Amino acid sequence: MASRPNAPSLPALALSLLIALSLGLGGCVATGLPTASVSPWERIDLDVVANPLDVAFTDARHGFLVGSNRMILETQDGGASWDPKQLTLPEEENFRLISIDFDGDDGWIAGQPGLLMHSSDGGANWTRLFLDTKLPGEPYLITALGRGRAELATNVGAIYHTDDSGNSWEADVTDAAGAVRDLRRDERGRYVSVSSLGNFYATWAPGDPVWQVHQRASSQRLQSLGFQPGGDLWMVARGAQIRLNEDPSDQESWSKPIVPITNGYGYLDLAWDGDGTIWAGGGNGTLLSSRDGGESWERDPVGRDSATNFTRFVFSPDGKAFVLGERGLLLRRVA
């Protein structure tokens, strides 16, 4: 068979495709990023194999860290060191302590399967509350709202509140959102959830009878959504894509995708520091920061040297901040 003299060789064709791809993605993708000269984070190895899932404080120095495998740790020095604490739970059940929150000494823990605990003395003692077996879904997110008051959201988007230390609960939503992979709440009591398959998201505000469903911004499945400091939304999708809500009055108005780095690992969470710095965390030590609204990014040196997946940021109003990793790894802000 005659050859095609004008056909490019395979190496040349591959180079042409790479150049075309680079031109097509120019301005939104960086294959490498500079590493910051200093880091505000200190690495803490907790000497456990469990995954940290949430952290909350009763005051400036005293708090608790909860996670998988029934893990609960207590700190008396603002999170610099942690000591194990025991909860009175059946030994045969392997609980995941997913969410913890305090309002002063009034504290709550939500976990799975079917776990809800309350403390009125700053976490010195915990009482297990037994939930109605007809409760839609499993406890997912707990918010302390004052003495004996709390709001509970489940992993299907059911929302309940109590004013009597959990003895009774009243539903705030007439219809749940469906199974979710991510669920966030802001200070105004608004929620945003991502469906279990990542194919749509939903929003709810106090007074709404049902969740409002929204289609995702692209074909990329959603990973997580949350609230920016001003109340606008942010979105993280597969393919390491970040999008920011452009119009506060339109929760389906999104920016073009921001892809700070293409290292084969996606982002799992996004957060805003008090000085406006945006932090992005994800797989294989991916910890990035932007100080110009997402226009440029740097890698964090402590994150880069940590062989873990960073799953969540926790920034508190009093300035404390933590990055939760996997298998007993925690970052604490010290600068």
Say how many strands there are: 28
What pattern of helices and strands is seen along the backbone?
Answer: HEEEEEEEEEEEEEEEEEEEEEEEEEHEEE
Oligomer: single chain
**pLDDT < 50 stretches:** 1-30
Give me the secondary-structure topology.
Blueprint: H1 10-25, E1 41-45, E2 52-57, E3 63-67, E4 72-75, E5 83-84, E6 96-103, E7 106-112, E8 115-119, E9 127-128, E10 139-146, E11 149-154, E12 159-162, E13 170-171, E14 180-185, E15 191-195, E16 200-204, E17 212-215, E18 222-227, E19 233-237, E20 241-247, E21 250-254, E22 267-272, E23 278-282, E24 287-290, E25 298-299, H2 301-304, E26 312-315, E27 321-324, E28 329-333
Antiparallel strand pairs: 1-28, 2-3, 3-4, 4-5, 6-7, 7-8, 8-9, 10-11, 11-12, 12-13, 14-15, 15-16, 16-17, 18-19, 19-20, 20-21, 22-23, 23-24, 24-25, 26-27, 27-28
What is shown here, in short?
This protein has a single domain, classed as YVTN repeat-like/Quinoprotein amine dehydrogenase (Methylamine Dehydrogenase, Chain H, 7 Propeller), CATH 2.130.10.10. Helix content is 6%, strand content 41%. The chain has 2 helices and 28 strands.
Describe the structure using short key phrases:
Methylamine Dehydrogenase, Chain H; 4-stranded antiparallel sheet; globular; mainly beta; 335 residues; 28 strands; 2 helices; 6% helix
Describe the overall structure.
With 335 residues, the chain is mainly beta. The protein has a single domain, classed as 7 Propeller (Methylamine Dehydrogenase, Chain H). Helix content is 6%, strand content 41%. The chain has helices at residues 10-25, 301-304; strands spanning 41-45, 52-57, 63-67, 72-75, 83-84, 96-103, 106-112, 115-119, 127-128, 139-146, 149-154, 159-162, 170-171, 180-185, 191-195, 200-204, 212-215, 222-227, 233-237, 241-247, 250-254, 267-272, 278-282, 287-290, 298-299, 312-315, 321-324, 329-333. The strands form seven sheets. Strands 1-28-27-26 form a four-stranded antiparallel beta sheet, with no helix packed on it. The termini are far apart. 37% of the residues are buried.
